[in-house]
Amino acid sequence: MKKIPLLLYTYLLTEMLAPFFAALLVLNAILFLGRLVPLLDSIFGLGIGLADFVRIIIYITPALLRFSIPMAAMMAVVIAFTRMRGDLEIMALKAAGIGLVRMLPPVLLFGLITALLTLATSTILIPKGTTAMNQLLLHLAKEKIERGVREKSFSEGLGEVVLYVEEVSPEDRSWRGVYLSDLRDAANPLTVIAVGGRLQADKASGLATLELTDGSLHLAREGKTQTITFERYSLEIPLQYPTMGHPSRGNMTQQELLARAEQLGPEHRYYPTLILEYHQRLALPVGCFLFSVLGLSLSQIGQGSRVALGVPLGLATFVGYYVLLTAAKSFAENGQLPVAAAVWLPNLIFLILALYLLRRSALELGHPWLERLIQLVQEGGQRLGHWRRADTAREGDDR
């Protein structure tokens, strides 16, 4: 029985860690900007402070990690083994009788760890982060309305509902002397006069509820005015605030997704969306594991080339996976493919690709068709660059 080369495995794992964290940092920064920019107007319109902005960053991060961890894992394996190949360390190991198959266990362990991180992010952190994010934005929207309600002035921060408050308590923000005009139904305007009131926000429904006490309600309808006195009256107004993710599924756990899908039934139009979300959260971690295995093979492609091809091939592979996944999801939503089969189909294809490339790399059979394709792309790029330089030179001569 061969002794496990722990020193070698530890060395390979440490070689993958540094590029993994570097790639994770860069990818998260790029994805974060892309996610935050559409929300900036709404977020700053809520008047948030530094502490709340940091909380928003924390709540957004899990949604980014679901995509950044798999890509960073692939890049880590590719970069680590590409560097080792460039420094002839791979050749030295092979000369010592250690082939790619003997180097595979630390890659499998690394892929398993990153896959588990992706699984925890998809099934635990994303629902919690989405819920916390929406609750925070709802709270900020409520605070904005409360700040806009000032004593002895009309507030128009509630859309077509105009509010006037005679006195605002500094302790609990309750109101005294309330006048309210509800113009949302222009044909039947509503006027409310109350002794007291306060604002409540329902985090589950995203509604602002005006709780009014001891007053009268005046309703104009078809040229007639109706007056109703009340001890307690509630008026619900939708809060306008940016949401993170799909409001109906982003904050659901796996069990809640299945329960909601079972409640709606297979014939409901929203049923495939829930099942897709459920399976996607499980399929992406498996894809992360496959990316790590693929990274080992991709780093060995183009042995005779002076250019490291692993990184661009890794990026192309990652993009291809998500293009295939998006297309499969589209077919499933249209009823052309079973939902579960559509989500897991890209993983099956990439599993076959990973085994194929790993076998050829381990046996040093090469990848002639892939290397020929890469060569054609490089030659096309060189010709395009030559044509551009020629065009630039002609433009210079014409001047």
Oligomeric grouping of the chains = single chain
Compute the separation of the termini in Å: 77 Å
Question: In one word, what is the shape?
Answer: elongated
Share in helix? 55-70%
- The strands making up the biggest β-sheet line up spatially as 1-2-3-4-5-6
Number of strands: 6
Order of helices and strands: HHHHHEEEEEEHHHHH
Proportion of beta-strand residues: 15-25%
Uncertain segments are: none
Protein structure class: alpha+beta
Mean pLDDT: 81
Mind summarizing the main beta sheet? Answer: 6 strands, antiparallel
Number of helices: 10
Question: What is the alpha-carbon Rg in Å?
Answer: 30 Å
Question: How would you describe this protein?
Answer:
By secondary structure, the protein is an alpha+beta fold. The protein is 62% helix and 16% strand. The chain has ten helices and six strands. Strands 1-2-3-4-5-6 form a six-stranded antiparallel beta sheet. A hairpin with a 4-residue loop joins strand 4 and strand 5. The longest helix has 49 residues. The chain starts with 5 loop residues before the first helix and ends with a helix.
What's the helix and strand layout?
Blueprint: H1 6-36, H2 40-45, H3 50-86, H4 89-95, H5 100-148, E1 153-158, E2 161-168, E3 175-182, E4 190-202, E5 207-221, E6 224-238, H6 254-264, H7 271-298, H8 310-333, H9 339-362, H10 368-398
Antiparallel strand pairs: 1-2, 2-3, 3-4, 4-5, 5-6
Helix pairs in contact: 1-3, 1-5, 3-5, 3-7, 3-8, 5-7, 6-7, 7-8, 7-9, 8-9
